[in-house]
Amino acid sequence: MSLVFPHTFVPWFRAVAPYIHAYRGETFVVGMTGELIAAGKLNSFVQDLAIMHAMGIKIVLVHGFRPQVNEQLAAKGQQSRYSQGMRITDAVALDCAQEAAGQLRFEIEAAFSQGLPNTPMANSTVRVVSGNFLTARPVGIVDGVDFQHSGVVRRVDSAAIQRAIDSGAIVLMSPFGFSPTGEAFNLTMEDVATATAIALQADKLLFMTEVAGVRENQDDPDSAIDTELALADAKRMLAKLPRPTQPTDVAFYLQYCVRACEAGVERSHILPFAVDGALLQEVYTHDGIGTMVVDEKLESLREATPDDIGSLIALIEPFERDGTLVKRDRTEIERDIELYTVIEHDGVIFGCAALHPYLEARTGEMAALTVSSAVQGQGDGERILKRIEQRAKAQGLSSIFVLTTRTMHWFIKRGFQPVDPDWLPEERKRKYNWDRRSQVLVKKLA
Prior knowledge:
alpha/beta; 8-stranded mixed sheet; 7-stranded mixed sheet; 15 helices; 37% helix; elongated
């Protein structure tokens, strides 16, 4: 174990570091279903929230209580009544909701207070703040159904919440709101979390749910989860789906994600609470887990800037050490930074390549094509190659070439042809390392 552990832990921790830096000081609103608590997942989930909080993320936690209210009603011999996916809250249901909310708030605060040695909560100091941050209004009568004491969010006291999270506290919100006259309304966790994220202009809205996410093929329950949905695609999907009537319907959480992104929340997520550590996986890994809705694709290709020099060096170094790439002088990278194209995901650079033009020969060298080992096999190399080809065409070049010792077959599969080193432009031929014996591969540009 002592031999294996450093070799797994150290690379993992280094891979997590960019996300720790990226999210420090950002605001996340987390919506937690009552089913998560009923499934016995509260303590481990709270530990994950405490870890994120310790790493500088500002957290607002909104809890649901659907199964707990149903249990209270059943104990009183009453039935739970729903319409259009929303609870019809009569006087008895309102009493049950208030009892359930009080009990859950106690359990959640107790979970954050644990500090047992040798647990993630050891030595943690997490303050939890609650309050009447919401003003609500009644749902009223919809399609002939009187929802009685069920309500929707009218206003969120974002200034008070902001003061609390800026002071270092986690804000805990129950799905209850009050009218200016003091009347209480039973709200939905989803509505409260979404309205709060919009009011705070949070960086993320995350729902911990009963579902694994949105599947790529809605007709196949075993199809893969679509880990990233552009807002436009999510809206088109939502328009084709039937109106949701229960949380397991595809459109149920998706509608709130779309609403949040349309109102300025950059990213909204549907995550499965059944997967241990799902929240940490989503926030601190490249591909995450569950489905993320974004206003635009987070993965982008762009030209490098001087601010990227440190990231490029860190990306290239491992491949220089194992001999895949020729070692480059750092001043050379700084000098040629405008020649580089990078691919980044959520602010982290995972791939790069440079295009060195030889205008007289109407060709250019693609050099330092690198994709992080953490994301290889996902097509990033091809996307970078296409962008390099576009840049070459824009400069009037008729071909591009590469020099490689290990990746010859990858390039041949993508239209490159081997040639003799004498084919190289004179200027490049003078710098050719005959001892390295690199293969020269050329691709003609249409």
